[in-house]
Amino acid sequence: MPNTKSSPDQRNRPRLILVNKPYRMLSQFRDDSGRATLGNLGLPPDVYPAGRLDYDSEGLLILTNHGPWQARISHPRHKMAKTYWVQVEGAPNSPARQRLLSGVQLKDGPARAMEAYLIDQPDGLWPRDPPIRHRRHIPTHWLALTLIEGRNRQVRRMTAAVGLPTLRLIRARIGPWELSGLLPGQWREITPPADFVAATGVSRKPTGYRPHAGRTRRRPRRG
To answer: How many domains does the chain have?
Structure first.
């Protein structure tokens, strides 16, 4: 007789998913106030964010169903670098950028960027809804900031401390993973690098990836 046993449940394998979190969406699957959440994006079941991204920030968020991977990405002891594109109000001159690099004093202690440099507006940048309110006589510029911390609203507080209020904040990179190719609300599953897998002691890896628009399908709320 043919073998009729079903294959192991694919949901049990370690999964790693990149998401472009839209503006004004929570980095969680449920909100009793009716705000948009990750539950709107048609993501696989049983994954959860490895770290957070503010409601009013956009860009790269990583989800997994595997605890060691979540810890490797999000725990401060691993010092995984995160790069942000930051549109600021004002002119980020050399002294201001140097202060970001040398460190600014915040209410919860000193904070500094590993990198802080001027960039052009990123290629292929999607429009924000609602758009940034521009002031005729106040210029705006884009910075790339790289941090190894993840304190609450840290980038916004750091730029404010040097006189450069943040107007728009997009996370472009976490460790080896980039936002490239994902529009707001889209996600794809990836295979993590071998050194990342080895560092977490996991031998099984997800295979392949798939892009997913995930902008209209709603999933049931999660507890």
So the answer is: 2
Which among 9, 54, 120, 129 is annotated as catalytic?
54
Burial (CB count <10 Å: 0-12, 13-18, 19+), residue 43: buried
- The predicted model scores a pTM of 0.84
Neighbours of 131 (CB within 10 A): 8
Q: Which residues contact 178 (CB under 8 A, 6 or more apart)?
A: 60, 172
Helices (H), the chain: 67-74, 94-102, 154-161, 194-199
- Tell me the pLDDT of the chain (223 aa) as tens digits: 333 332 345 557 899 999 999 999 999 999 999 999 999 999 999 999 999 999 999 999 999 999 999 998 988 888 899 999 999 999 999 999 999 999 999 999 999 999 999 999 999 999 998 998 877 778 999 999 999 988 899 999 999 999 999 999 999 999 999 998 999 999 999 988 888 888 777 554 443 334 454 433 344 344 4
Strand partners, 76: none
**Residue 126: closest CA among 212, 20, 19:** 20
Verify whether residue 123 is a known catalytic residue. no
In a shared domain, residues 195 and 167: no
CATH code assigned at 94: 3.30.70.1560
70 and 97 together in one domain: no
Residues 155 and 132 in one domain: yes
- On whether the CB atoms of residues 120 and 140 are closer than 8 A, the answer is no
